[in-house]
Structures
1.
Amino acid sequence: MKSLVRLLALLLVTCSLSHSQKIVIKAGRFLDPKSGNILQNQIILIEDGRISSVGSGTTIPPDAFVIDLPEKTVLPGLIDCHTHMLLQPEDGRGFPPVVSKSQAFRTIQGVAGAKKDFEAGFTTIRDLDSEGAGFADVALRDAINKGIVPGPRMFVSTFALTITAGHMNLAGINPDVQLPDPASITDSRDAMITEIRRQIKYGADWIKLYATGTLRHVDPVTLEPVHQVSLEDVQAVVNEAKRWRKDVAAHAYGGLGAKNSVLGGVRSIEHGMFLDDEILKLMVERGTFWCPTIGTYIPDADEEMTDFRKRIIARHKETFQKAMKMGVKIAFGTDVGAYEHGTSVREFMKMVEYGMKPIDAIRSATTRAAELLRMEKDLGTIETGKFADIIAVDGNPLENIGALKNVVFVMKEGRVYMDAR
Ligand SMILES: [Zn+2]
């Protein structure tokens, strides 16, 4: 009965509030990522999807719809800078999804996955490669923007650029059989430039470049990853992206591929578990962001925890701790899709376990992530003028980061999508 009342109340809130309706959130605890403080009893006034004032002395307009959250911690909507909405955990096992699933089916799965991540508190995501689902990420982004399906605000990269025999070029395949690849094969600079133009034409917001291979390309003795691009390649990709006012994210575990990416001007390095002191220093100097995606390399199944894997996890931890100390800009990224949608909070737990303060872990997914996306004027904090992307959780995440598991309220641009109080 109680859940029915909640459902009716939610329907009432979501259906009755027009975009222009004034809404007030009364926040019992208000977590401000900028100052790192929790303020008591703040009043947030929302008009036309944006925050029009916030503070303890804000007057509540008589015609405003009031949402009272006296026992909750209210914070800005979270941002995940490395997701795969079109990917599901089972896609990493058995036949690759380009072989076993239609794009239509993958898109439907993507709709369901996006809803789960959204209800876990992520109101914005950067989706880095549809991994063979074509431009379905563009379709999903647009459907969410049009209000056809619920989900986070998406920045998408469509296909990614790779090379023959590299990452996302299917291995172990009969050479006589033609199969679609999960990424675009671009073996020359000209091919890279042409492919970037095609991706932009069909809706890419970001360009994703595979600058090193994947785990099968890592030398089991030295842990050196295969580099897939030269400095000149990266410069060509970054320059072409710049023409269209887009940024580049580079999948790079470390070594020459990572160094070329940083020197070539990419905006973020993805994964980067083998980044050495020289590269980390270059990243600090150049302001390159890092999305560590720690959790995705920690297998769920015990049998996958090989010695090789253990060494990778240990290096990842070491690099993370060094990067924190050196002042690398760490932005929250999970690789969700490689594991269950809606469970990305595990990345926060790992970051804190590895020594990051809870407030800095939260900053990585709010203020820092907004900066990476060049959206700091609109996202990342609950301040006047920004989008009303607001979530609430049970408990205090500064005392226990696990409280971020307990998301009970999700608002995006002033619209309530979940209210499970
Ligand atoms: Zn990824």
2.
Amino acid sequence: MVKAIRIETHGEPEVMKLIDVELPAPTANEVLVRHTAIGINFSDINVRRGGFYYPEPMKMPLTPGNEAAGVVESVGSAVTEFKPGDRVGYVGMHGPFYHFTGAYAEKRIVPATRLVHLPDNVSDRQAAASMLKGMTAASIIEHMYPPKKGDVILIHAAASGVSLLLVQWVKYLGASVIGTAGSPAKAAVAKAHGCDHVILYRETDFVAEVKKIVPEGVSAVYDGVGKDTFKKSMDCVRPFGSLVNYGNASGHVPPIDLLDCASKGSLSVSRPAVSFQIAKTDDLRRNCAHFFDLVGRGVVKVEISKTYPLVDAVQAHRDVEAGKATGSMLLIP
Ligand SMILES: NC(=O)c1ccc[n+]([C@@H]2O[C@H](COP(=O)([O-])OP(=O)(O)OC[C@H]3O[C@@H](n4cnc5c(N)ncnc54)[C@H](OP(=O)(O)O)[C@@H]3O)[C@@H](O)[C@H]2O)c1
């Protein structure tokens, strides 16, 4: 028996209960992983609340969570790349994140094709706090708008999980960063991680503030906030610039008229989904190796602002929904 968070129905954080579940032995191509750290991601909130993703109903009961690090306990008969005692991590299973959750547990059976080895210079906690967010940052930086020297990038909610990695990665690539933040404390975190300017976007008009810094507009906007920021962000981008919406922390982005992209200067608009960045095992492992190299060399620092015992998942979700997080937060089994 292992302890796992279960939900029987969508709802408020209190629908999550810690229960005992039975785990079968791994089949031929599976691995039993004992979790040492579990990543908390906004997608966990969306899965728990329900109604965010496509209208396919989620199979209940379910255990939330897409990301964890830990130690291999046993392997199936056909597994050759992993052995008991190996340090491993995973992010997402095969397919969409809302269908194959299950990380909020002491242990989990994982297909070997979804596991990566953790390098010695990346701790379990760093890995669990950064793989999903780091792969999201990679999908934006590599596929949506790769920042170049001389670019200015506007990154919303710059002290939040994905954004704080983006800030550091963009700076490393030689571009400048304007961040937005919801409080002076978050602004300080964003600055400490490399933001050249931070705008308190709940108190000031961020479009006017951006225009004061770069009158011609920014090269690109990376927006994980969505509903509250997306349309105004269209006015922050220079001609032929790019607006990347990667998240909806404040709610769904309203529909846009494509002609607005023309009138606002031949703007490109995109919406990445991280699961495509890591759908194939080779891509997953190559992307993780590249990201872990940045983390291991200290180019990208993984800020873990808070850890919670697994039993306190309810409180962790309340804190994420209240926007209290900076960087990443973990559940510890
Ligand atoms: N496209 C993908 O594949 C992908 C992958 C990973 C994450 N995401 C999405 O990206 C978004 C950010 O993820 P994350 O892990 O960086 O989240 P996070 O660390 O929890 O940060 C979210 C931040 O958004 C801001 N915010 C604005 N309005 C909010 C509201 N109504 N409720 C809560 N927060 C609000 C807050 O910052 P301030 O206080 O500074 O405003 C908050 O700290 C989420 O929507 C997530 O689902 C998408």
